[in-house]
Structures are given as structure tokens and as C-alpha cells.
Amino acid sequence: TSGANSSFFVISGNLASNKGTVTYNGLTLTQCLKMESSTCIKFTASSKGTLTLVFGESGKNVKINGKKNASDSNCIVTVDVAAGSVEITKGDTMNLFYIIYTPEKTIPTPDPVEKKNGLSKAEDGNYYYYADDVVDTSFTGFADCDNERMYVKNGKVDTTYTSVEQDGADWVYVENGKIRYDYTGIRQNSNGWWRIEDGKVNFNFTGLADNENGRFYIQNGKVNFEYTNLIQDGADWVYVKNGHVKNDYTGFAENENGRFYLENGKVNFEYTNVIQDGADWVYVEKGHVNTNYTGIRQNANGWWRIKDGKVDFSYTGLADNENGRFYIENGKVNFKYTNLIQDGADWVYVKNGHVQSNYTGFATNENGRFYLENGKVNFGYTNVIQDGSDWVYVKGGYIRYDYTGIRQNANGWWRIENGKVNFKYNGVASNENGMFYLENGLVKFNYTGTYIQNGIKYNIVNGVVKGKENVLTVMRMPNSVLTNSIKMVI
To answer: Domain tally for the chain?
Structure first.
């Protein structure tokens, strides 16, 4: 019996596959019948016999013909039943994994006056098929004896014979010459490997099943050794190769839903990484190769440029993920890279491989030193601002180291020499707006007076030079007849 289908028992109730597993008689049982108020199992015992029920719980009751019977410490109920109708119903809430009725074996007492016909056990302990007291060596097939059905070959039960053979409309599993009605699993003959349920081939079965050799994919009752796929097995997705579930396989497999990463034959839906898949390195997200992803993902070796789910080793440039924008060389983020580089219409500051989108300040590349706001060169920016220990003249986002003159900011007008404020400068200097008087590098708009520089006297009004004249001053020298200085105005 498998599930609720049986040619012997009449079963009504609900099945479950999430109540654990039970091992009995060499079988690992995963499906059970829930003993509920509506659950009922009926059968007709052909003779006095033994009913064996295997549950998932010990110390609980089940009703057999209305009488409660408790499961033992091994979760088994074994009761004797008389010939006739037997009904099994709920006592306590339990889960039934296995049921078998075994008729009591009887040794027929032959009429000494009758000749032997059919299958009978001889004094040598072997079973022979007789026709009028003579072993019928022409007979090969099945016959019943001692409440068992046996396979006869050339008139004798071959107790060494094990195979899957046809018995009328059924194909049955024969082990050591007897049909194993208590066996459910997979057995083979010369035609293939077959799904056996309660001793018979179930040609309606398509799915996965086990025997001592492993777990196999079965199609219409037969193991399909040409079948390779990634398929669902309960809560798991497993890799079937040539009909066999590959429990020792770790790697990739695919089906109509995509390509997946497996460990020990199962898709690991907890796994996220960048790993090698043949000639490619791919981005696995929750067990699935994410071919829809383009961005940056990491593994133990670094952060990688992913395009359509694969590492793009040919890529050099900038790319994004949820952590920001990064500089990539040959597919890998270069965390040692610091520079000012072009990014589309912008120039951006990369520090340790990461675009510094929050950075405002200065950065340098082979073209010079630039002023950035929020990580980008502000080509519209012109000002005199501080750069470390210097104050510099920025025009169009670029420090003008080629400029000498006067430029202003919010604090005043400043003497610029080779792009930097000269705070030691005292005197007059000019720009396109005129000539001005400066002290300590700053135009003194509050100064009115004169200032002599290099033999020239400058007339200054509010810091602006309004006129100038050359001045020659002769100082009194020793033994000179001059007693006063002479000013010559030219």
C-alpha cells in the first residue's frame, strides 16, 4: 500500500508528508495517514491473522473494531484479528505510516487418499508443483502455498530467485522465490528498475523514490536513466543526473527556471556569492544565478563588475551598486585607486576606489588641481578659497597656477601670485579693474594717501591708485654741500 491507494485496504482520510520519517523493516517511510475523526480503514481478513500498524507516536490509542489498542515504545500496534470485516478508526490523534495484515499460516493436511496437485512442500523442505502426485517440470509460473505466493520454475520453487516478474495482470517483486507483498521501494529485472508498492509495480507512479542504492527518478513506474534535470522533491530542489539524485554533487544545474547553485545535491537557497561556473564567474543570489543583475557584487577575493549575472573582466570604468559608485579595473574594484577622472559629462573624485559623492574640496590629476562639490568638479565655480595651508584662486573649478594679479572673495580682494594668495605682499598691484594698494596681500579700500614703490609715488584714494609720479630723492652725503634733499618731478 502506498498513500491511500490499495487493492486490499479501503482507506479514507488525509495524507501528510510533513510529520517526520519512520524506519520499519528496512524502509524509510515519509508519508503518513492522519488519524482524524473522519479517518477509516476497512478490509476483510480471509482468515485469522495478525494486523500490524506502525505509527509516528508511542503510547497512543487506535481503535480496531471499536476497541482501543495502544502503540508500544516502538510506536507499533500488533493485534490478532479473526476472519471477517476489520475496521480501524481514530482513538487518539496519531499518524499512521505503515499497515500490513498477515494471515495465519496453516499447513494443510492432505487427504492421504488424494493425489497431490498444485504447490506443496516436500519432505526435503523444498516446494514443488505437482500434477497427480508427480512434479510437473513443465510448469513455470506462480502458485500459492502456506499463505504465500511463490515463483515456480520447472516445477520447483527456486529459493535463490529474485526478480520482477509478471503475475497475471500484475508485475510483482519476487525475492528468494516468494512475492514480497510487504516491500515498497525499487527493484530491477532485465527490463529496468521498477517502482514497487506492496510488492507490485505501480505503473502510475512518476516521481522520486528510494532503495538501498539511493534516490531515483521514476516515470510511469520505471527508473528513467536518461533523465537529467533539476526538480522539486518536497521542500527541496534536487539534481537528478541519469535518473539518479546526486546527493554528493556540489555545483551548478539548470532547469526551465534558470541556473542554480547546489550543495550536496540540493539547491542552497541561502547561498549568495560570486563563484566560478565553468569558464565564467557568476553572481549567485539565494541559490539562483541572477542573470537580470548588472552592478557590483563581492566575494572573498574582491568586489566585481557584474553584467547580466556574469563578471565582466573586460570592464574598466565606473559602476554602481547600493553602496555607491566605484572604480573598476579589469572587472574588479580597485580599492587602491585614487584619482580625479571623467564620468560622462562630470569629473569625479575617486578615493580608494570609491567615488566620494559627499566630498567637497580639492583633488588633483595630471591636468591640475580642481575644486569639487559633492564629489564632482564644479566648472562653474570661481573664488579665492583655502586649500590646506594655502589660499588659492579657482576659476572655472580649476586652480589657476598661471595667474598673477588680484582676485576677490567674500573677505576682500587679494594679491594672487602663481595662483596663490601672497599674504606677505605690501604695495601696489593691478588687475583688469585697475591698480590697487595692498597690505599683507589684501587690498586696503580704507586707505587714502600716497605710497612710494620702486621710485614711483602712487596717489591712493580708498585703496585705488588714482595717479602716480616719478620721484628722485638725493640724500645728504658726507662732505656734501647739499644740506637738503632735492626732489625732481619729471
So the answer is: 5
